[in-house]
Amino acid sequence: MGEATLEYKEKALLGALEHIKEYLVGQNPLDIEKHWHSIYRDAYWRGGAVLMSALSAVEMALWDILGKKLNVPVYQLLVYM
C-alpha cells in the first residue's frame, strides 16, 4: 500500500487522489510506467507537492500489486529497472 502525506494540506491531497482514481479505474494496474507518465504529464502544474505526494503513493501501491501478482517482494522487481 502506498502512503501519501502533506502536512496541513490533506484535503488537497485527497482531491489529487480522487483525480488519479478517476484515471486509474478500469486500467491495467500492471502498466506502472505508463500510468506514472500519464498522471504526471496530464497535470497542468507538473511536479507540485500535492501531485507528487499523491503520485508517489499511487506508484507504491501499483508496485505492490505487481509484486503480489508475481509473488515476489517489490525490491526484487526494482533491481531490474
In short, what is this structure?
With 81 residues, the chain is mostly helical.
Molecular structure report:
The chain is an all-alpha fold and 81 residues long. The protein has a single domain, classed as Enolase-like, domain 1 (2-Layer Sandwich). It is 65% helix and 0% strand. It contains four helices and no strands. Helix 2 packs antiparallel against helix 3. The protein starts with 9 loop residues before the first helix and ends with a helix.
Describe the SSE topology:
Layout: H1 10-24, H2 32-41, H3 49-70, H4 74-79
Query: Looking at CATH, which topology would you report?
Result: Enolase-like, domain 1
Number of helices: 4
Q: How many strands appear in the DSSP assignment? A: 0
Mean pLDDT: 88
CATH class value: Alpha Beta
What CATH architecture do you see?
2-Layer Sandwich
Q: Shape, please?
A: globular
Task: From the alpha carbons, calculate the radius of gyration and give it in angstroms.
Answer: 13 Å
Kindly report how far apart the N and C termini lie. Answer: 20 Å
Count of domains = 1
Largest sheet: none
Question: In terms of per-residue confidence, which ranges show pLDDT below 50 for 5 or more consecutive residues?
Answer: none
Q: Give the helix level as a range of percent.
A: 55-70%
Elements, N to C (H/E)? HHHH
The CATH superfamily turns out to be Enolase-like, N-terminal domain
Measured by DSSP, the beta-strand proportion falls in under 5%
Structural class: mainly alpha
